[in-house]
Amino acid sequence: MEETQLKNEIRNSIEHKLSRHYGISVEEASRNQMYKTCARIVRDLLLEKRAKYHEEMKKKQNKKIYYLCMEFLIGRSLKNNIYNLGLDNELQEVLSDWNFQLEDLYEEEPDAGLGNGGLGRLASCFMDSLATLGYPAMGFSICYEYGLFKQKIVDGWQMELPDIWLPGGEVWLKKRTDLTFPVKFEGELKEVWTENGLRIDYNNCNEVEAVAYDMMISGADSDDVAVLRLWKAQDIKNFDMNSFSNGDYNRAMMENTSAELICKVLYPSDNHAEGKTLRIRQEYFLVSASIQNIIHDHLRKYGTLNNFSEKVAIHINDTHPAMCIPELMRIFMDEYQYTWNDAYKMVIDSVTYTNHTVLAEALEKWPEVLIKQQLPRIYEILKELNEQFCQQLWNQYPGDWDRIERMAIISNGQIRMANLSVIGSSHVNGVSKLHSDILKNDVFHDFYQNTPWKFTNVTNGIAHRRWLCQANPELTKLLDECIGDEYKKDASKLAHFRKYHDNLDVLQRLDNIKLNNKIRFSNLMKNKGVTIDPYSMFVVQAKRLHEYKRQLLNVLRIISLYLDLKENPNMHVVPQTFLFAAKAAPGYFAAKEVIKLINHLSVEIEKDPVLRQNIRVVFLENYCVTMAETLMPAAEVSEQISLAGKEASGTGNMKMMINGALTMGTMDGANVEIFDAVGKDNIFIFGMNADEVERRLKSGYAASFYYQNNPKIRRVLDCLRKGFNGESFESIYRYLLVGEYGMGDPYMCLADFDDYLKVHDQLSETYHNRNKWNTMSLYNIAGAERFAADRSVQDYASQIWGIEPLK
Ligand code: 26Q
Predict the structure, then answer these.
(1) What is 464-689+756-784's CATH number?
(2) Which of 414, 428, 702, 705 is at a distance of 20 to 30 A from 68, taking alpha carbons?
């Protein structure tokens, strides 16, 4: 379309929509009204584009991927969609005539924070890539009324406030009143024999209705629009007229709330499985609505289910939607009269599973009694699946009870969702090379021996258009000038940037860009009352707060530095700012204590005018996707210091790397592949590797040994006892030294302490050599080429889902 014509159309739609929704003219519109108006225009464009794509899909009949996930950490959409549609220039020009700035409108949008952290953000990055690469795809999740809580720090302590995202976020949702499915909970089963075979009746069940709300996700420079379908629960009759007319007003109201409760709020625990009835109901609600929807669509398109697994790939993102395995069995058998064996084959051939964690406490295990009570038919099917699987194992490994017990779906009154997921799917993958190896050699070793062909690896990736092109426009411009803009659609082209490793002009520009991004971030924080010196080195640890991620190790080193500087105020150090951003699960006391420690240490340092010139600790309140988009481009040192073997992959490491930060990390998760990508000279690695951790755990870790033999450690731990800013941290001192079993903390912070300090000293040394630092930074940007979500999605498509782009 011609440019002026396009601009005229935009102008007219804005005026029309403002008048229709608010009855006002442009002159009267507030920023918020203008944001919503632009969002509605973009949404309508996407709906039209989607309709065209849908027609195309119907004609071509390609296999389609359905991505099931309890979390999508979406963040903001307006900027991403405008960027992907290539509308930014025209829209800005139209808005400028009315004295509006696009950047200001972006600020009006609340984050859609329907996820906890890595797993949910990965799902969102994948949607972007699926749409951009033109794969027929659809995401399914829950439309939580409240996303991940808002974090407020009060006297150093984390408080949680509800995250009210819908006023403002609702403009992206298109309610589909034509798309509803019933979901049944509880009740008693009755088997009825009919001439068509067995029929299962449900008596006294609690039925809710799932209503679809669609969010369109535009591909970048592509015809494809992916749909993210979010389910909301409503009471099936909306109102129980029966109870109501019987005078049972309370009961009538209760029914309604119990349906709505399902979608009320996202569970805020990350890497920890909470065994609550409501969570089971949420999971089954997502699964049942989505599977009914998939089957319904398939039948409409093909008229038969016989070709189901040829045309449908269903991916479960961790075990949270694993109930789709028995749910598919249920529908195939109970509603379409397939035999057990035929149904089972169709399920395995269509379902695939990604594992995201090796932590025992994060593996979902549900009490049998709960499932039996909440989902009686699903329970029957799970029992049968378990019986048959154990029978098969018994034939394969006669007498090997231990092995059969380890591999069973049901054991000790518990249903193991991970075992169910492996058994019921055709592919099982980890999210980094190291993690996939650990799955094969350890977590799922028995299964690996039994069905080795199921196990694969697909290393995670990030939406580089969001995390580089949109988040870091200056670096993007430099890249465009040096290597052209092909890398936007083909990230492997980023590798060409290596050519500039000794170009002094480019290196100097990298230095300036980083400084500008640091200034931009500092200014943003200044508005929130936080002082940051943009000329100090930015050392960033931004991720959920968890013991295994070892924020504490970072703090211990800072305390050591603080004590050095107190003893010797003239000591020369690189002026640096330690930035922490982390939410702790609300009930996770140990994690909240660490947040408190960071905040009190920060105040203590701030009180000393000499100290704070050299080091400063800043805790960034309420870390979210939008904050990450300005923080990642400002980071210089990326702290990735989990105990080796525990972080499945990490994706923040990739986001900082692609923005030119250098990694200070252990050989864990995707850090190992970052090391491979940039080489040993362009990364700072310290501490035990995963094998050494294993050996150390076997030989026995004793924290007291380090306390007694390492004066630096002793000094830091004693200082914790004394405390900061008038607060003692005796509990953390005891945690590190004694722990639950008397040997110290389970993540062995003290064992890696010395090496961590040593390698940080090397880093400081390097930081002075600007030329060297900038070269290293350049190698990291170029090496991030393989960590694009586009690459991950292509790997999934070819190795796991067996799908192809439409065109
Ligand atoms: C389970 C049951 C009940 C309540 C909550 C949960 C639950 C929720 C979220 C369990 C786990 C999670 C989230 C896990 C997660 O985010 N894992 C991260 O996944 C990233 C993407 O693959 C990896 O990069 C990280 O290493 C991994 O920690």
Answers:
(1) 3.40.50.2000
(2) 414
